[in-house]
Amino acid sequence: FFPDPVKIEVFNEPLGSSLEEYKIEIEELKQDMLDATNSASQIREDIQDLKHRFGTISPSSTCDSANCRQSVFSKEFYLFPCHHKFHLSCLAKDIAHTLSDKKRNELDYLIKEHKRAVQAANAAVASLNGPGSKSHHALHDSMRSIDAILGKSCPNCSSTMIEMIHERFDEGISGFDSDGGDDDGWTISK
């Protein structure tokens, strides 16, 4: 590529400075990779710690769904790190409108399967056949799948609520005329 009389000494300084720049960039990349690896390890540890975290609930605690307010102990429930508590069925109803049609159908199916698994596990225990490992595994699998959808974040105070800020506030409220006017349901009485 070069004519014969060209000496390599001419390229010595530019090559050296380029190699020095690449060396610095490689060191920076190594440090970035080390930082990313340490962050990933810390996140894994935090996730493991969360699996063993617990919360206490008072006997008078109620479901935090606006449509329920029954004792939280009356049905299966979720307790979020923010201390909001929801019955499984109430939580499913509360977040259903935030899910895609496909996810909503999947959740409905999983909840039906979970109910069947609970009934099968109860039947196995009632008939003194032991815990019924098959029904126990089905129950565990269905709960894990439901957790993946429902247990991601609290619908009352997480980013889910923030993402819904663009939705109409008046939707579904009785006494509101959706064409922009209001009717007697919104009048202030003296």
UniProtKB/TrEMBL annotation:
Keyword Amino-acid biosynthesis: no
GO biological process terms held by the UniProt record: endosome organization; organelle fusion; vacuole organization; vesicle docking involved in exocytosis
Segments forming a coiled coil: 19-46
Any one GO molecular function term: protein-macromolecule adaptor activity
GO cellular component, one term: endosome
UniProt cross-references to InterPro entries, sorted A to Z: Pep3/Vps18_RING_C
Keywords: Coiled coil, Metal-binding, Zinc, Zinc-finger
UniProt-listed Pfam families: VPS18_RING_C
Chain ranges of the Pep3/Vps18 RING C-terminal domain: 66-106
Protein name, UniProt field: Pep3/Vps18 RING C-terminal domain-containing protein
Organism: Percolomonas cosmopolitus
